[in-house]
Specification:
CATH topology: Methane Monooxygenase Hydroxylase, Chain G, domain 1
Shape: rod-shaped
Pfam families: SNARE, Syntaxin
Helix content: over 70%
Number of strands: 0
Keywords: Membrane, Neurotransmitter transport, Transmembrane, Transmembrane helix, Transport
GO molecular function: SNAP receptor activity; SNARE binding
Structural class: mainly alpha
Organism: Gongylonema pulchrum
Family: Belongs to the syntaxin family.
Largest sheet: none
Distance between the termini: 92 Å
């Protein structure tokens, strides 16, 4: 008997061990996002950006995207497996519990991706400001819209200028470097947006399903309450009918008894 209990609980133990492992990965992912923000702030504060620092930031971002993608696929696979579980009463309850755990982790991952994306967008805006400052130093006094148009351009040649001053050349080189960084950021942001949209869609669909379940439960409660009232009315009506029938039977019995007595007395007096 104990052996059977251990065997039945083994799948649950494996599942929750997997859930805890994913929580740990999410916690590590959150730390990586925080580390990325620190690196971004450090790069923005540097007058001359060292390639080594940029490489470390790129490596950090790539690691976040890679782990987030693996997590997303793993969670979707787990959810698919849960939906394919058997349909008896016990497995239905287990399926519901497991689904809730998985979707909670999906929500955490989606929130983390949203935070990551917001940090990327903010960093892009700060880099654009840095480009404008460097262009001002180089004597290229452009409006914010003109700078944004240059930033949005995919051409690597937009910052090439015929200049003699070393300082101006350095400023333009920095602007070019920052522009290349923005191009990489945009690709990263788009990739994470797609990943986030997939998760958000899955969570939204499940949310609609939950809302429908709530509505169905509410309707069921209403129908049960209405049915209960109708049942009570039917019972009361049935009781009234029984009383009427009983009254008729008693009245008929009394009538027959009285008639019998009258006939008996009539013949007795003759």
């Amino acid at each position: 008997m104990d052996g059977d209990a251990d065997n039945s609980s083994a799948p649950d133990s494996t599942f929750f061990a997997e859930i805890n492992e994913i929580r740990n990965v999410l916690a590590k992912l959150s730390d990586d996002v925080a580390s990325m923000k620190i690196r971004q702030h450090s790069l923005l504060a540097q007058t001359i950006v060292e390639e080594e620092e940029k490489d470390k930031l790129d490596e950090c971002i790539s690691g976040i995207k890679h782990r987030a993608g693996l997590l997303r696929r793993h969670l979707v696979a787990m959810k698919t497996n849960v939906e394919m579980m058997g349909g008896d009463k016990n497995s239905s309850a287990v399926r519901r519990i497991r689904r809730n755990h998985i979707e909670a982790l999906m929500k955490k991952l989606a929130d983390l991706l949203e935070m990551f994306n917001a940090a990327q967008i903010d960093y892009r805006a700060q880099v654009s400001k840095r480009i404008k400052r460097q262009l001002d130093i180089a004597g290229e006094h452009l409006t914010e819209d003109e700078v944004n148009a240059m930033v949005d351009s995919k051409s690597p040649q937009i910052f090439n200028r015929s200049v003699r001053s070393t300082a101006v050349r350095s400023a333009l080189d920095d602007a070019t470097s920052r522009h290349n960084e923005i191009l990489n950021l945009e690709a990263s942001i788009q990739e994470l947006n797609d990943l986030y949209s997939d998760l958000a869609f899955l969570i939204h669909v499940q949310g609609v399903t939950v809302d429908r379940i709530d509505q169905n439960v509410g309707s069921a409660v209403h129908y049960v309450a209405t049915g209960g009232k109708q049942a009570r009315v039917a019972v009361q009506y049935r009781q009234a009918e029984m009383r009427k029938k009983l009254f008729c039977v008693v009245a008929l019995a009394i009538f027959i008894l009285v008639l019998f007595l009258i006939i008996t007395i009539f013949f007795a007096t003759r």
